[in-house]
Amino acid sequence: MDHSSEKNKSATKKKVAVVGGGLVGSLNACFFAKRGFEVVVFESREDIRCAKTVKGRSINLALSHRGRQALKHVGMEDKIVSKGIPMHARMIHKVNGKRSPIPYGKKGQYILSVGRANLNKELLTAAEAYPSTQLNFNHRLLDWSPETGTMTFLGPDGAETEIQADFIVGCDGAFSATRKQFLRRSRFNYSQTYIPHGYVELTMPPRNGDFAMEPNFLHIWPRNTFMMIALPNLDKTFTCTLFMPFEEFEKITTGDELMNFFQKYFPDSIPLLGVDALKRDFFRLPAQAMVSVKCSPYHLNDKCVLMGDAAHAVVPFYGQGMNAGFEDCLVWDEILNQFNEDFSAALPEYTRVRVPDDHAIADLAMYNYVEMRAHVNSKYFLFRKYLDNA
Ligand code: FAD
To answer: Which residues face 63 on adjacent strands?
Structure first.
């Protein structure tokens, strides 16, 4: 993309520092750069476009309407959608192996399975294409000053460096370092809740060169207090995610115990996953925790705003964490239009408008998780909600 026209506009505009070059940070950099701001992104990891392995959470995610709208605004929707796999329905797997589809909406409606790493790479490249944007990797934010906007980073050489910006956008995820300054302020509300469930990811390889199951579905094995889901990938694999209470994970310590467990609850998946691969994947990493974070306000004076998981980490049972984070960028952009880029007026409005919506998403995600645990014998009705076409 040629964005040379943005170069002149940035000369008179604020210098915006985006902390975190994950999904929301890299998209946000595009939004600010498109408006002509000078944008500097600081990401603690190395550049994932050159990295051999990409550490992090879920391998793929469900992209839905609200996320697509934000991508569209910076001209990225088609590029991302072209690498996504439509999922028109959930496919429910019973213990006896029977499968039944439950559509997401009307005919033709679907959500998309997209690879996290590719999405992040594409967004970083799109941000970098703006001449007013600079990406800095291996820069971990340690602290910043709300008075001066000076940020302290641990740089690639292990030394601390200080960098100044007019405005800081905290997109540094659920354990945000940007948010620490908010916590020191009076009248900042904050809560975090870890749920008793953890998750592990398993890979289902292709079969005879094709997907091992029907590709255009989000597969779900609902098992009352726990469940497994599977989303398709472009390389014809599926990423299966097993969500289960930590205390159940802790009971499975040997390959035999694992196979007994799968034989009892997910027998149809065993030949598709493969016994050896299943044992390897399951024990490769400990189960990962899931946290829900709520806070308010999202802005600090006219110096900083929090977006994405830094503002509202949600449990993944509604498939809306990233989508809501993408929508943050769009809503902020619309408010900047409304207030003619007057940050001191736009920021309180952003908090006023956005906090209730993000809290609602967090509540819906948690509600669906609680439903899952409480309605032990209620067949599938609760899973009808899983990953709405929102
Ligand atoms: P992150 O993705 O956490 O990115 C934060 C970035 O900041 C990272 O790159 C990190 O390295 C960097 N960083 C952290 N600290 C610092 C620092 N001090 N200095 C500089 N950089 C820093 N959402 C959906 O919409 N659909 C789904 O289907 C879905 N499925 C999910 C499944 C699972 C199992 C999980 C756990 C989550 C899922 N989510 C889903 C939620 C989604 O992953 C998050 O909402 C999304 O990643 C948030 O993006 P983010 O950029 O705000 O934060």
So the answer is: 112
